[in-house]
């Protein structure tokens, strides 16, 4: 079977709104470490990790063996109506690491479900369906999660079960706060929050949900400390803070284990997903017991925290900590960030290289300003693939090249990927100038 045959079959039975990467989509058939191989035998260095999900890499013996041990018991699924040792052990680890006092953990299958559960808990706890969310955010594809997503490209319905009021994101390139000096942005964001509460809500708001670094939004980060400044206002009103750590968690930013820790604050709830399962469906929400217990009926997740996924999760978390992958993310991320910034200096088609650790974005614009250039982004994206590197795309305008390699990335692999990236950017930029 050829890739073209599979592509035709894909288009015949799957919806058109499910995007495929590349002008000639590829099928990945094997992987090892940080590399994957497609159906044509071409091997790539993976700098996107299944959208920041294959956090430890591919074919990791410790994870494979943990899953195989569970498979050998014959119990793939039991439902949470029975005790699951792997689930309890993983919940204990996550509760300790969360930084939230007297924490409880509820497992789901995806980040969307985790955020949906967090919103359920928060609205029940506060007896209100009013939510504060952030512009340019992404929190999932389900009804409520989509309702608090501030990105038009990902908002597939105008219908919303929640009443949402929107805050400025703190983006450095565009928007009202971008006009201010860095030192003034937090004060302006707090003023914005107070005005939104006074003018767009009835006062009894349930929560603010926010990403420490906006993932789909193009790895846009507010100034460090913004969450703490917001929370002082939230606490005046009893409003909960939910930190969406689906992409920023588990040490990916290098400087902290959770993204919220850059803000010197502790959220009331945090959601997690992606990397902790390293490809197995595993996600959840952590919160204070008094908050997470705010569900006035029976509820559970049929597959959430099942024996297989939590066996993988335990192995992932143990491997992550045993190998200090947070420090590795800081070290290899610095190689990429410093190298990229030096290489693109003087290129007026690159507005910004941003991010933390192994969560990096390059934003492309038309020369002479900040007008997004998604076409150039696509050309660089395709050139990276041609050079043997898989990256991602994102941003509100589709003009950000996103990189979220496995946290096991080596220094040599970081330099290898950097060379491919730099060549792709320079060659495409030169072609644009020539045209």
UniProtKB/TrEMBL annotation:
Claim: Cytoplasm is one of the keywords in the record: no
Cofactor(s) essential for the protein: pyridoxal 5'-phosphate
Transferase recorded as keyword: yes
InterPro entries assigned to the protein according to its UniProt record, in alphabetical order: Aminotrans_3, PyrdxlP-dep_Trfase, PyrdxlP-dep_Trfase_major, PyrdxlP-dep_Trfase_small
Domain of life according to the entry: Bacteria
Alphabetized UniProt keyword annotations: Aminotransferase, Pyridoxal phosphate, Transferase
The EC number(s) this enzyme carries: 2.6.1.44
Protein family per UniProt: Belongs to the class-III pyridoxal-phosphate-dependent aminotransferase family.
Subunit structure: Homotetramer.
Protein name: alanine--glyoxylate transaminase
Source organism per UniProt: Micromonospora purpureochromogenes
């Amino acid at each position: 079977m050829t890739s073209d045959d599979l592509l035709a079959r894909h288009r015949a039975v799957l919806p058109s709104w499910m995007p495929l990467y590349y002008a000639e989509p590829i099928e990945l058939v094997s992987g090892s470490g940080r590399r994957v191989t497609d159906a044509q035998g071409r091997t790539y260095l993976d700098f996107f990790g299944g959208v920041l999900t294959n956090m430890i890499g591919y074919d990791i013996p410790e994870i494979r063996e943990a899953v195989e041990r569970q498979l050998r018991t014959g119990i793939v699924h039991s439902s949470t109506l029975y005790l699951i040792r792997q689930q309890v052990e993983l919940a204990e680890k996550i509760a300790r690491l969360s930084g939230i006092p007297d924490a409880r953990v509820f497992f789901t299958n995806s980040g969307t479900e985790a955020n949906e559960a967090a919103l359920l808990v928060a609205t029940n706890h506060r007896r209100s369906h009013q939510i504060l969310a952030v512009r340019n955010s992404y929190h999932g594809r389900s009804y409520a999660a989509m309702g608090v997503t501030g990105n038009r490209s990902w908002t597939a319905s105008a219908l919303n079960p929640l009443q949402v009021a929107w805050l400025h994101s703190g983006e450095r390139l565009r928007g009202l706060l971008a006009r201010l000096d860095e030192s003034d942005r937090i004060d302006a964001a707090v003023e914005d929050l107070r005005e939104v509460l006074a003018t767009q809500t009835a006062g009894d708001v349930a929560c603010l949900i926010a990403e420490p670094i906006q993932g789909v939004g193009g790895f846009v980060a507010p100034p460090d400390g913004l969450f703490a400044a917001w929370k002082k206002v939230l606490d005046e009103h009893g409003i909960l803070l939910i930190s969406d750590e689906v992409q920023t968690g588990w040490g990916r930013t290098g400087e902290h284990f959770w993204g919220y820790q850059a803000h010197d604050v502790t959220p009331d709830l945090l959601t997690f997903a992606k990397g902790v399962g390293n490809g197995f469906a595993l996600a959840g929400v952590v919160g204070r017991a008094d908050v997470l217990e705010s569900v006035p009926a029976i509820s559970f997740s049929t597959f959430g925290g099942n024996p297989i996924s939590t066996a993988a999760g335990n192995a992932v978390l143990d491997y992550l900590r045993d190998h200090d992958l947070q420090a590795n993310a800081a070290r290899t991320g610095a190689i990429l960030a410093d190298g990229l910034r030096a290489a693109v200096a003087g290129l007026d088609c690159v507005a910004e290289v941003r991010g933390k650790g192994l969560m990096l974005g390059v934003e492309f614009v038309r020369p002479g300003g900040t007008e997004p250039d998604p076409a150039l982004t696509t050309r660089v994206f395709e050139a990276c693939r041609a050079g043997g590197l898989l990256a991602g795309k994102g941003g509100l305008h589709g003009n950000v090249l996103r990189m979220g390699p496995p946290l096991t990335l080596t220094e040599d692999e970081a330099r290898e990927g950097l060379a491919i990236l730099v060549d792709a950017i320079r060659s495409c930029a030169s072609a644009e100038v020539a045209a």
